[in-house]
Amino acid sequence: MSEPFTHRLLPYDGVDEFLAGALPFLRDGVDQGDRVLAVTGVGREELLREELGLAAAGVEFADAATWYGHPSRTLADCLSDADNTAWQGRRLRVLGDPVWAERRQPLEVVEWQRIEAILNVAFRGTGATILCPYAGSLPAGVVAAARRTHPETVRDTRAVPNPGYIDPWAYSAECDREPLPEPPAGTDRLRIDRPDLYWLRAYVSDYARRTPLPEEDLQRLLVAVTEIVTNSLRHGAPPIALRMWTETSGEPALVCEVTDEGRWPSGSAFGLVPPRPGATGPGGRFGLWAVRLLCSIVQIRTGDRGTTVRLRLGLPAVPAARVGAGINRA
Amino acid sequence: METLWSVRRPVRDLRPGDHAWLAYSGEDEQRHIAGAFVRDGLLAHDKVVYLTGSARDAVPGLTPDLPAHLLTVLAAEPPGGERLDPRAAAAMLAAELTRARRAGFRAVRLAADLTWALGGAGGLDPLLDLERRLDRAVAPSTSVTALCQVDRRRGRPADLAAMRAAHAVHATPDPEFEDSVLCVVRTFQPAGLALSGELDASRHAILDQALAAASAATAGDVHLDLAGLGFIDLGAINILADAAARHAGRGRIVLDRIPAQLRAVLETVGWHMLPGLSLSGPNLT
Known about the structure:
The complex is a heterodimer. Chain A has helices at residues 14-32, 42-52, 64-67, 71-87, 100-103, 106-122, 140-149, 168-175, 198-208, 215-235, 287-294, 320-327, and strands at 6-12, 35-40, 59-63, 92-96, 129-135, 152-155, 158-161, 190-192, 240-247, 253-260, 297-303, 306-314. Chain A is of the alpha/beta class. Chain A folds into 2 domains: 6-175, Rossmann fold (3-Layer(aba) Sandwich), CATH 3.40.50; 190-327, Heat Shock Protein 90 (2-Layer Sandwich), CATH 3.30.565. In chain A, strand 9 and strand 10 form a beta hairpin. In chain A, helix 6 (106-122) runs parallel beside helix 7 (140-149), helix 6 (106-122) packs antiparallel against helix 8 (168-175) and helix 9 runs antiparallel to helix 10 (215-235). The radius of gyration of chain A is 22 Å and the shape is elongated. Chain B folds into 2 domains: 7-172, P-loop containing nucleotide triphosphate hydrolases (Rossmann fold); 177-283, STAS domain (Transcription Regulator spoIIAA, 2-Layer Sandwich), CATH 3.30.750.24. Chain B is built from 8 helices and 13 strands. By secondary structure, chain B is of the alpha/beta class. In chain B, helix 2 (86-102) runs parallel beside helix 4 (125-138). Chain B is elongated, with a radius of gyration of 21 Å. In chain B, the strands form 2 sheets. A 7-stranded parallel sheet of chain B has the order 1-7-2-6-5-3-4, with helices on both faces. Chain B has a 6-stranded mixed sheet with strand order 8-9-10-11-12-13, covered by helices on one side.
């Protein structure tokens, strides 16, 4: 691919400014024979189709609510699309409307913003071009963050370097600057001092079965916990401990926390960049990356005071009374 | 005789009084199971009596520097294609058992390959007659263990079923590995491994070793029967993918009877990350 990868911010106020930036981007793609994907809401799709006219036939539309399903999964799927398109000698062109910025819980918004930064690393060399329209009506912090995760800004159809842009890994580290809130008081702490994790899984299962966590998600949690604890046993420092609790404020979630006294080496990718099939050697290829896919949200803090990994799995909404009854550990 | 009460038992767990059955699908399986039965007996210095069609037939499981008195091979096929004489064959075995007892053997292993008699004159009846006589001699015994085998490729399904029904115990391979958490057993039809229990980092080396052995022994696809597997960690999934890559020139690694919750995990990781691994059977939807 001769085209360089681009990731541009389109700040706009009102529909006219949105169309002024989005339409040339999409039309250029159709003209150049790109694979053109517009990820947006239903209302915007109608508007774009109308304005594009015949050119709309050359654009795939995807419903943003589904497309932005899970930060790591969306990144991996889109990257794999970019690879496949490049392999066919074409360029992937994505208009990505960040609908997640309006509705999601703060924890999840942070992860989507992190993805905006990490994709600058992950998509290098794919030749893809991504344009992200951010409405001025979004919370001020969201637009400010976008200025730090997009290398370029579109102004009057021209791309100009974004002075606020920072290194993706530095941005990602900033996302993790805040310490994690303490686990709820009275949470049991299970010491892990033997390599056989059979009993650990029995413990996690017993706890999870008292919550509304679906059986398939329990298996995902067991795989994720086993991976994190295996990493701690191999690379971390004792004592290794596990805590579990449920959160009912905000998005209901089962949280499983693994702590040890070790510190991850600097330069760790924290499983954020999807591995490419066949590109890596044997052994531990997709460990932490897969853990991110298996959980709703993974939070990692590592430093002089040891390492904490929190695995969060969303719980289905059930009447509050049932959640309370299920998790009461008194 | 009914099979309702028949049990499956790894060959190493067969004990005096067992009159066991093995329908093997090839030399490899016969060596693995009947061979283990013969070898374990010889190594324990028990008497091994091997009944076969002709004295030229190979005996599986022979040990090096075998003391001659430990093994007796009996050829039971009547010359000239006459029908099997169950009374004569049983008498020959009884005489051998008596000799062994007089020679002071604590235990006797009786292994019979009856493949030659499957298509013999007189049909199945003389064979079933022999089985009844064997059963009467072995079942009450505190010193004799018997293993009857046939090559299942050479028998009609109805005959094999009737023979099978004449045995209370069905011999299975000794596990390649077994502890309280994981069991790995070779399978022969299809060729591969049956994994049951839970697989995590504490047993990765065992999985790796068993896969390498199964791959080396298998010319085509290697099948993994996962019906009994309750957990598999990401490292073990990586090991499966690596094994598939190494086996790629000769066939795929096929995952049979994968439990739904394990399948959900593999799908989360994504099949594109696991080239060379495929699902089979009713799970493929």
